[in-house]
Amino acid sequence: MTTTADELLRLDNLLCFALHAASRAFDSVYRPLLRDAGITYPQYLVMLTLWEHGELTVKELGRLLRLDSGTLSPLLKRLEAAGYVARRRGTEDERSVTVTATEAGEVLREKVRAVAARIASTTGLEWAEAAELRGRLNNLIVALDAAVAGQDQGNH
Questions:
Q1: What is the count of structural domains for the chain?
Q2: Which phi and psi (to 5°) does residue 89 adopt?
Q3: Does residue 14 sit in the same domain as residue 25?
Q4: pLDDT tens, 44-63?
Q5: Could you tell me the residue range of the domain that residue 62 belongs to?
Q6: Sheet strands (E) in the chain
Q7: Predicted TM-score of the model (pTM)
């Protein structure tokens, strides 16, 4: 089956739009679940990463979350003001800032523990189906990153 140029311009045929719409739908499901904990979805992602990896530099955290420092810094500032994370400047390199979950951040982990299970059941996907979809999306991310890297090299 061949796809015409006009078919590629239809919104309902765009993979990027399907991913965008799915992301917004996830946001709508997460919002009320996280509201009780007093955090947003992006803040939840920061906390999940810290719980998984422990202390990280802001640079490492940004790489893992695919966020630039301009987006990540305000998230960390709000999480620090709420008492969930602590930031510390490096002693050897003051430009390097490390972030770690505080005791209150660990308590938050228990508050939101059920969120992931609720989301998983909401998707209607079996664990294996969700794992397959994640794998396919990860492959897509690798392909898109490679395309961007190729474009960047072409611009030099």
A1: 2
A2: -70, 145
A3: yes
A4: 999 999 999 999 999 999 99
A5: 5-124
A6: 56-57, 85-89, 97-101
A7: 0.86
